[in-house]
């Protein structure tokens, strides 16, 4: 079952069980996926949908930070809950140690030694690790390794 189908099934079950928050959050997510399909005029595969999910989680996390700065804890909590809901559809995230090991492997393969080569390390890591680690974590640990 594709991720898109899983989301559609979860929307239906949330509707049946009257879980309004989950239903609304998943509808918003489904709409974001459909919008990209309309814009690109092609049916998205799971890999493309994973990229959209990561983007949506980043949006929620950014909004949460803004709400926290503005003292709106209720809205910040809503954004955090939505991000957790979306994260259910992502593959298991690598732990910090696993991510560090993967980055060290890539660093050694590409023979990178300087912080100036951070971009190459992060780019290659994003391509290989895809949705198993978010870009912010990759960048932070890569800086530690090259720094």
UniProtKB/TrEMBL annotation:
SUPFAM superfamilies the UniProt entry points to: GatB/YqeY motif
Stored Pfam families: YqeY
InterPro entries from the UniProt entry: Asn/Gln_tRNA_amidoTrase-B-like, GatB_Yqey_C_2, YqeY/Aim41, YqeY/Aim41_N
Name of the protein: GatB/YqeY domain-containing protein
Annotated source species: Campylobacter gastrosuis
Highest classification ranks of the organism: Bacteria, Pseudomonadati, Campylobacterota, Epsilonproteobacteria, Campylobacterales
């Amino acid at each position: 079952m594709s991720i898109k189908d899983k989301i559609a099934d979860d929307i239906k079950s949330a509707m049946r069980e009257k879980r309004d928050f989950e239903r609304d959050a998943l509808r918003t997510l489904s709409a974001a996926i459909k919008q990209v399909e309309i814009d690109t005029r092609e049916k998205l595969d799971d890999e493309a949908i994973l990229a959209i999910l990561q983007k949506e989680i980043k949006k929620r996390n950014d909004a949460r930070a803004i709400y926290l700065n503005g003292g709106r804890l209720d809205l910040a909590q809503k954004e955090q809950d939505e991000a957790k809901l979306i994260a259910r559809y992502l593959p298991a995230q690598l732990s910090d140690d696993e991510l560090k090991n993967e980055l060290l492997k890539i660093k050694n393969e590409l023979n990178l030694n300087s912080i100036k080569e951070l971009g190459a390390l992060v780019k290659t890591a994003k391509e290989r690790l895809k949705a198993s680690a978010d870009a912010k974590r990759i960048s932070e640990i890569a800086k530690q390794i090259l720094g």
